[in-house]
Amino acid sequence: MSRSPEEIAIVVEERLRAAFEADPSRRGVNIARLAAELSVGSVALIRAFKRTFAVPPYQYFLRLRLGLALRLVGEGPSPRCANLAAVARRCGYVDVSHMRQAFRRGLGMTATDYQRAVGNRALWTRGLARGEAEVSGGPVDRPRPRLQRK
Question: Which fold is adopted by the domain 63-125?
Fold first, then answer.
């Protein structure tokens, strides 16, 4: 039974969402294995997905990760995500720097700038344990020194 490109894209999107919800820290899904399960080629699968969702599957997966990070940062601190480092880990980013790059690419601002924009900055910096300087006045807030060319 042959599937239309839209049906293939919808199945792939469902699998991506299920994989992400099961484990946001995973790197995506194996496209070759998924293509074999759907009896299509990898290129055809990616092409069908991109035609339907305007981005390739891996980019879609990265957007799911960024969406979770946006939601968690926007909600403010919680027992499971007390600071930006915890949010980064929960969303599958290697560290705060990696999450900051994703925010910059996706929104044009850092996670800290996003916090300020949604008004939760005071919540995140109040009452945090020692060693969580990346949230208040730490590396996230410090401008990087510029390298001088010789």
Answer: Arc Repressor Mutant, subunit A (1.10.10)
| CA–CA separation, 71 and 24 (whole Å) | 14
Per-residue three-class SS string for 72-108: HHHHCCCCCCCCHHHHHHHHCCCCHHHHHHHHHHHHC
The DSSP code sequence of 30-42 is: -HHHHHHHTTS-H
Residue type, 43: V
Q: pTM of the predicted model, to two decimals?
A: 0.72
Which among 120, 129, 62, 116 has a CA at the least distance from the CA of 93?
62
Q: Apex CA 86: angle with CA 82 and CA 87, to 5°?
A: 95
If we measure between CA atoms, which residue out of 123, 134, 133 comes closest to residue 96?
A: 134
pLDDT tens figures, 52-93: 999 999 999 999 999 999 998 888 787 777 888 999 999 999
Domain ranges (residues) in the chain: 5-54, 63-125
